[in-house]
Amino acid sequence: MRDIAELVLDVAAQAGAAYADCRVVQRQVQALSVKDGRFAEVTAREDAGVGVRALVDGAWGFASCDRMDAPSLEDAARLACRIARASARLRRVPVRLAPCPPAVGTYATPVGRDPFEVSLEEKMDLLIRADEAMGAVAGVTSHRASLEFVREQRYFASTEGASVEQLIVESGGGMDATATGDGEVQTRSHPNSFGRHQLCAGYEAVQAMDLAGNAERIGSEAVALLTAPPCPTGRMTLILDGTQAALQVHESCGHATELDRVRGDEAAYAGTSFLTPDLRGRFRYGSEHVTITADATATGGLGTFGWDDEGVAAQRTVLVDRGVFRGYMSSRETAADHGEPSSGAMRAESWNRIPIVRMTNVNLEPGESSLEEMIATTEHGVYLQTNRSWSIDDRRLNFQFGTQNGHLIRDGRVVGLVRNAIYAGRTPDFWRSCDAVAGPAEWRMWGVVNCGKGQPAQLVHVGHGAAPCRFQGVAVTAAS
């Protein structure tokens, strides 16, 4: 990998690049799933390639190739420089990069048990047992359990002297049970929706999910939802479980604090942001219970690494401090506009995509309450679990979310199950109404594997630490 990068960078410099960097990536993915008693997928795939960025005449160029022979690598480096030179004709303001000390070192995901060393037989047995337990519940009409494992070896080098090697390992799994009857379709998932929950960790992360042990429970919950009354309508107290809180953070704070969106760079596809620079340091985003960070050093997060994809060291950035909007996730280019260092948030889906500003692990920091205490001190409200649907405008301001499971609360007690719950609001009003966040004992890191952004589109895995949290006076209703 080092030899490949040195060749690419030498050619880019000779072709006129004032700066260039190179990423050499080898990726291995294994995926297994069982659906309705049959294996639906058992696949293994690998790919490898090189991506090169070049800065020529104040503009970026990018090219990639999946051939590792010298002529192909040299062609990619020269193509990146030609694209940059052509782009410079249309760019009014030259690119500036925030200073960054050249990174040198290695990083590897802490792994207890290498998932690629675990036999297919053991993995299949786990899926079969989970699938059978869901299917044994009367009323469950469809059921699926899946696993996915990723191993990615990355080497990054730049003309500034950066040279870092990283080994990132991900392990994930999940299951869904669907029940149908009387014109209703209800699904319950574990540990999360979106098909699975995933972490930067070894096979121990999957074992901790206890898929087989939770299979009967989620099947029974799906069936019970068929006859549960609709969620009541009105403004009331809302308690979110950790999985839904994580998605709320993702959509209404994570994307809103990506600095390229603020600049308008993503306006055509992903949108912009209401958190403009003039609000920084004085805008009340949430209550004093709300502190949100972007932390690429957090254990287990899908946004955890040693260095980002332009060689900036992993770090913790405060986005919202006790309710006040404080910071952004940035790249070297976007940070330079504000006279500050990069937050280390440049990430690419693959070697054949240019890095863009992406979430790392955007976390709602733990508070001092507990789920039990929140319920006990709620007079009238709902406790909602696991996302079912989401919608948010392109400025990340107005939103609507639906959840799989709902529990009605009266006078400090859960009194029954409700279905098809939807809640809606305006981002700052919603977070300002937060009056409790559970503490470290209930705080968990959650993985989102389908975060889309960029043109051409890139799906990147991101992490969100969250715990159950409570909000007052939220508009709640039931989907029709």
If you had to describe this structure to a student in words, what would you say it looks like?
The protein is α+β, with helices and mostly antiparallel strands and 480 residues long. It folds into two domains: 226 residues, PmbA/TldD superfamily (PmbA/TldD fold), CATH 3.30.2290.10; 245 residues, no CATH class. It is built from ten helices and 23 strands. The strands form five sheets. Strands 1, 2, 3, 4, 5, 6, 7 and 8 form an eight-stranded mixed sheet that branches. Strand 1 and strand 2 form a beta hairpin. Helix 1 packs across helix 2 and helix 3 runs parallel beside helix 5. The model has no long low-confidence stretch (mean pLDDT 97).
Largest sheet: 8 strands, mixed
Total discrete domains? 2
Oligomer classification: single chain
Q: Compute the separation of the termini in Å.
A: 55 Å
**How would you classify the helix and strand content by structural class?**
alpha+beta
CA-based shape: globular
Number of helical regions: 10
List segments where confidence is low: pLDDT < 50 over at least 5 consecutive residues. none
Instruction: Classify the helix fraction into a percent range.
Output: 10-25%
**Number of strand elements:** 23
The gist of it:
The protein has 10 helices and 23 strands. The chain is of the alpha+beta class. The mean pLDDT is 97.
Features:
10 helices; eight-stranded mixed β-sheet; 2 domains; 40% strand; 22% helix; 480 residues; PmbA/TldD fold; alpha+beta
